[in-house]
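PROTOCOL LOG
Step 1. Enter all chains and additional molecules of the complex.
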Amino acid sequence: MHTMNKLRASIAGASALVALGAAGAAVAQDVTLEYWVYSDFAQGDALALQQEFIKEFTEQHPGVTINITGKGDDDLTAGQVAGAASGDLPDVFMNAQSVGAQLVEVGALSNLYDQWMAMPQEFRDQFDESALAGCMPKPDELYCLPYTGFGSLLFRNLTVLEKAGIDTSTPPATWDDWFAQMQQVKDAGMYAIPDETLVFNSIAEIYATSGDSSTWGFNWEDRTTRIDPEIMTRVLQKFVDMAPLNSGTSRNDQATKDLFISDQLAFHTVGPWVNPTYEEAAQNSGLKYDFVLIPGDEAGKTGGIRSYEMIGVAPGENQQIAFEFAAFITEKAQMARWATLLARYNANAAAMADPEVAALPLIKVSVDAARGAMDVAAPYFVDSVPSCYNSVVIDYASATADGEYTPEEGAKEMIAELNDCLAE
Amino acid sequence: MSRITVWVVLKWVVALTIALIAIFPIWWTINVVFALPGEPVSLNPRLWPTSLSAGLQKIHMIFTETEYLRAYGISIAYALLTIIGVLLIGSLAAFEFSLFEFPGRRILFGIVMLALMVPTAVTIIPTYLLTSRLGWLNTMQGLVVPGLASAFALFMLVQFMRAIPKDMIEAARLDGAGHFQIYWHVALPLCRNALVTLAILTFIQTWGNYMWPLIVASRPEMYTVGQVVGLFNSPLSHHTVDTVMTANLLAAIPPLIFFLIFQRQIVEGVAMSGTKG
Amino acid sequence: MSFRRYLPHYLMIAPFMILFAAFFLYPILSGFYYSFHDWNGVQTPEYIGLGNYEKVLGSRDFSRAMTNLLWYIALTVPLGILAALGLALLVDSFTGRWANFFRNAFFLPVVLPAFLAATIWRWIYAPNFGLLNVVLGWLGMPSVNFLNDTGTMLYALIAVDIWVSAGFNMVIILAGLKNIPSELYEAARLDGANKWQQIVHITLPMLGPVLFFVFTYGLISAMQVFDKPWLLTGSSFASYGGRRNALLFPVMDMMGRAFGGVKFGEAAAYGFLLTVAIVAVTAVMFGLRTWRERR
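Step 2. Run joint prediction.
Step 3. Record the structure below.
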């Protein structure tokens, strides 16, 4: 069945190629494009599929060679910053939208607006609106094509919940339900949730249970934070309430996954990338789990964050062909194959709507999760976020959870300091 | 026959406990690798290896599905070339600074010694830009050459060569040996131990070097072992603990083997470097 | 004429000095230049006088990193030496094969790459079921979150530090011990000195120069601490220093400003402040030694 899917997908891919071929003028002379991706794109099955995309593209564009390179998150940015300084940039690359402003500042990203507008309407309509908006700081500036992404999910260990006497047939609908379940888990002698104050993204995930994109991120005009003191107070109170229930490990620690797998942890709010690990554990050691939307304060509201990875194109003589390659891999046919292979959500809305893709459970939940979620560091591409910003948020969230401030004081001081940090 | 006193027993207990603390983390890593994947550490604390085949399978997977073997090659070449260069260039300079008098000797040596106190991170960016202007990004010379003029190597070798009796130099000169011949046939053999020590320290240091290869060798063809392991250690990587630990352990094997073979020289060499200073 | 006389000397040091000038002097001087400029690595540097220095000195992270560094140095350097001295005396009290075994066992962690040591220790320190907490659990003690509790993070780092470096210093001190003439001990024994008195009155004074080397070297490297806290806290350029910046150190802050914030001018200024501090401390150390020797 897997091969059938692949076959069908490649036929779809080939037909899309013909459409794309018309859009761009092929380059005659030999060029080599350096293509940088996150390290997990350059391993195993994912790498095989990426190489298939590259093969399809280079067959259509004789003389073009594409080298794919995997990099850890940090190495990707550091490598691009260093590369920009020496003029040795990758031609086309992935990165998070949240580091976009730094990359624009060092000249690693070119404005794709005109090339984008020259693409067929049908192509432009494929992308998720909020993801695309993230690439456009101004109406006539477009610095990236949305690529992959995630909306955070709530992974539930069903064994733990059942042991705590919780009915798992329906996920918690509101924060209050959810928190009540956490307490039940704790009373049953297990950990409810990781320590959500340790990582910026998990703080944001909980903030989103009360706030939304309009009260998170930055006002770049006057360089202030959009965080609302009242909402932050409420959220800090949640951290205080969760303090006795948590496992002490962060959302990203390997240790957290281990607790979850060994039925000691009930909830894990995180992106879909942990799913392969949990799936493997389900097969090997009988882990029973599912993933649902993170509940918000009222029924119908979703917590959690969304964040997109982008494909950027460096300025330079290879810019046109690099853009064509970027447009090719972000196109629906490729993104649908990508989604099917990894069962992972991405920013091509048309691919997500493809019936075969939409039927995949992780994608189905992810689409809803991303729709309701909060942008993690918007608006992007305007200015680089000073490094003090994230650490101030983490500092005050943890200090308040430790009891050093009351939630009101914590929120007030955090916001004052964030504004100082941004003003610098 | 010495009596077995409380103190003797205590001494053994303390020594064995500390040896356990020193060795156990490495032993534990081996056990993590040689255990079935997916078994949570909390259920199987990995006190001894539980599955040989699972470990071999992980190692096989890493060697076949990633560029680990090539990275080994790059790292070994990087380390060997660095060792040869550091020893040669350092000993040439140390020979002069320790045994001869010439205008500018003190000031030049003083400037080089200042470099010992400057954190590498301070010079890394301008050095990178220079390397890139030379067109040396993603090349072996880009990895190796900027690290050759090692202030530490010069410092250490000067300490050793100072101990060479001046009479021996004079005697060789009277026998008609040229300047370079004296260096090659008299000075170098006399500080063989120091050179071996320096080679070993340079190996350990180069093998563990992360930051410089990271920025100067950005293409996978030039990845060192440290960088490949970095891909596994990345927080969002899909790999499970066992695989991550396997990648880490494989990186430690060359220095561990190196140590087991040369342990006497290593330990004596390190000892000398400290006491001669 | 005199130049020709010295020519062979200059030729022999030329390879070293040329490479040194190109890959150390030039970078550090250009770094000095950039430290007075606003520079992101790409645009033309813009002269801003002491702006970068003011910014660094006035920033919260700088004072945090410096406070952490002072505590760290005050603890890790003396504790490290004590541990190394203790290990050396311990190994020295054994003979033959066992002495070799213990010496090698204690030295083993030295040869591991830093990234491996950090990965292993992150697991050992993990709350609840990390090895250390499992042992604490057997002893009936509650789980400690070593790498996230601001009260324990520094000690957790120092423990790893000592685990890695004690073996190295031990070997140096061991060699120093071997150089102490045994007649001294015999004379002391005849005078009725016990083991402890021998250590205090013979071993330590005779080890003076060796301990000075270990101390100074330890101090210089402690001021440059980077990879262990970076890896133990799972730092990245977007967020580093661990919970509440409890393990933020100057070199980490500097690298973060360079590659996270793309502020190369600021990072260069930071580097110079740090270098000046290290040179000053080293100068004081050597000054103290000269002063003591003269006395």
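Step 4. Note key features.
The CA atoms of residues 121 and 160 of chain C lie 7 Å apart.
The domain at 37-294 of chain C is CATH 1.10.3720.10 (MetI-like fold).
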